[in-house]
Structure formats: C-alpha cells, structure tokens
Amino acid sequence: MFRRIFDFFSSLKLTIVCLAAALVLVVVGTLAQVNFGVHEVQQRYFQSIFVWWPSGSQGLKIPVFPGGHLLGGLLLLNLIAAHLRRFRWTWGKLGIHLIHLGLIIMLLGGLFTDLFSFESFMQLAPGETKNYSEDQRAMELAVIDTSDKDLDTVTAIPEGKWNKEGAIEHESLPFRIIVRKFYPNSQIQSLDKAGAKAAPAATEGVGAGAVVSELPRATAENERNRESIVIEIVPTPASGEATAQSLGTWLVSDALESSQTFSYGGKTWQLVMRPERYYKPYSLTLRKFSHDRYPGTQIAKNFASHAVLIDPESKENRDVLIYMNHPLRYRGETFFQSGFTENDKATILQDVYNPSFVAPYLACVVVGLGLLIQFVYHFVGFLRRRNTRQA
User: How many structural domains does the chain have?
Assistant: First the structure.
C-alpha cells in the first residue's frame, strides 16, 4: 500500500497533470480579473484548495477544479518523492541535487509567503505620528472606553468574530455584544428618504433614524464593500441576578464616518467600525511630503516622504527618506511610497511583511549554482574524452 502511494506521488504523470492544470488555472484566473479584482481572484483561484461553483454562493458549492494551494502542494510532494526515489549520491549528480533543492525552496517560499505575509497601509499628514498601519480589506469593531481623559482603552474585535450572528464576550467589557444582522455590503439611507413603510435599522444611535439595505458583494478592483452590522448591547448579569435589561440595538457601519457614544456602568463608551489595525513597537512621524511633477504636466516626476523613525526599545531615533524604489526596511517590514491623498494633503505608505522574502533569491542562487556545477562537470568530461581520442 505504501509502495503504491509513493509511486503515485513520485510519478512523472502526476507532474505533467499538475503542470497542465496549473497552466489552465493561471489562464482562467487571469481572464477572471476582467470581472473581479486581483485580490478576489487570488482568494478564489490561487489561495484555495478547490475552485468552487457557484463562486458567489453562500449555500451549497461544488468543487470544479483544483486550486492553487492543492496544485502547489502536490507539485512539492511530487518533487520531493521523485528526488528521493531516484537519489544517488555521486559528484556527477551534485548539480541535479542542487537544482531540485532550489525548486523545493522556491515552492516552500511561495507557500510561506501566501500563508504568513500581509500588507497594510499607513496614511500620514505632515506633523502626524502613527504607530500602526491599517488593512484596507479587513475591518474591526472597536469598543472604546473614553472615561479616562488621558488614555482610551480600546477593545478591538476582528471581523471573523462578528461576520456571523451570535454573542461576543470579552473580559474587558462589562456587557455582551450580540450580532443580530451582518451585511457584507450595504447602503444606508435616512429614514425620511426611505419611504413610509421603512423600518429603522436599530433603536439607538444613528440606526434609529436610518435604514440599511443589503447590496451584492463588490468584487471589482475599483469597488469597495461597505460592511454593516446591527448589534444589541446586553449588560453581563452579576452572579445571582436575572438577565439584565438590554441597552438597545445599534447600527455600526464602515459607511459611518463618526463613532457612536453610550453610557454604562459610570463610563462613556464609543462604537466604531474601522480598518483593522496592526500596532508596532515604533512610530513614524511625517515631516514633509514632496510631490514633484514634470513642468507643464500632471505627470508625477517624484514623490517622497521625509519621516522620523522612533523606536523606544532599540533607542532608534533617525530621519528616513522613503521614495520611489527606495523603501524603508525595519524590523522585518518594508515601507514603500505607495501614493498620496487629494491635493497632496497626506502620504500613503504601503507596509509589507513577508518573513520568507529571501526564499526566491536563495532559490535562484541554488538553482544557478546547480546549473553551473552540472555544466562544468559535463564540460570537463567532454574535454577529457576529446583529449583521450586525440591521444
């Protein structure tokens, strides 16, 4: 049984089938970008075990084609099994071994990049300081205790906790948050414009005078989902007490620019939905943002951010200049000059964390070394045979 499994994973037929399927997947995924954004296509085709149909359905879905993770995993197992099956240690095979090792490093590096890397953005206005970046494709529900004048206590609830109905409890909160309705994409209208039969989305806050309607999920690159949730805040009953009286329902949405406030337990609380934040042990302060254009045109010639990097742990305090093709690399993260806001009021830095960014370079070096050794070995052998015949 083990022999059959090993023969299957080490067979050349599996290699050909996986490479052919990968070629089809790349072509189909590339064509799909006409209707869907790059990130949507990555999730559906390349960052999945299977390609599912229908893709936008929330109910029963059928796997119709292997996804990128499955094909990549099969190719990796096939490469390792085939190498073990045919492994013979001789100096003449050293180049072949290095080439296989380089390919394995490349496949593993791609897998680790897909699983552990992430990108976010930091928007800074001149004079502004931030110690966090924001994810534009993930939201969080922030419950903020603003009772202390000097310090806000924030409880951030990630999207995976509230994108389905249910109760949310946290030790820092004296109440439970019950998700009554989640809208992956929504539109909010004032109650007076929605018609006489429209019902308010919530009983408290902005939702008491607004109506929320669900929209089809946006997938195009230039479109954005406006997520909304209707939550009920229920105080956590003390021991021996019956169920506490509800504080009402609230509409919290990405489409609402300002936070909503309520009082409980002698404290003032705020509710706001915002992009998920990644806090850092250091901060960046923007001193100046430059956006140069070619004379007489609106074509960008150069845009750069002059900032100050402060890290209390390492006592780092230095000026940094981030501009096109010259990123800032610090603590395993890379900050690129990504863009700017309207009228150059703020700069936008792209923050990329990729723990396996060295893998492609290492793989290329190992494969190149293997090819060189293999070429030299056979070339020397050719010269020896020719000299022998001439002698």
Answer: 3
Q: Whole-angstrom Cα distance, residue 232 to residue 13?
A: 57
- List Cβ neighbours of 342 (8 Å cut-off, separation of 6 or more): none
Average predicted confidence (pLDDT) for the chain: 90
For residue 305, count CB atoms less than 10 angstroms from its CB and return exposed for 0-12, middle for 13-18, buried for 19 or more: buried
pLDDT tens string 38-48: 888 988 999 99
Among the candidates 230, 252, 277, a domain finishes at: 277
Statement to judge: residues 319 and 238 lie in one domain: no
What's the domain range around 309?
119-129+279-353
Say what percent of the chain tops pLDDT 90. Answer: 63
CA distance 216 to 229: 16
Answer yes or no: is pLDDT of 258 > 90.
Answer: no
Residues 338 and 370 in one domain: no
Same domain, 322 and 292: yes
Six token digits for residue 102: 């380089």
Rounded Cα–Cα distance for residues 262 and 85 (Å): 67
247 and 157 housed in the same domain:
yes
Q: What sign does the CA torsion over 370, 373, 377, 382 have?
A: positive
Listed in sequence order, the residues at least 6 apart from 269 whose beta carbon sits closer than 8 Å to its beta carbon are 143, 144, 145, 146, 261, 262, 263
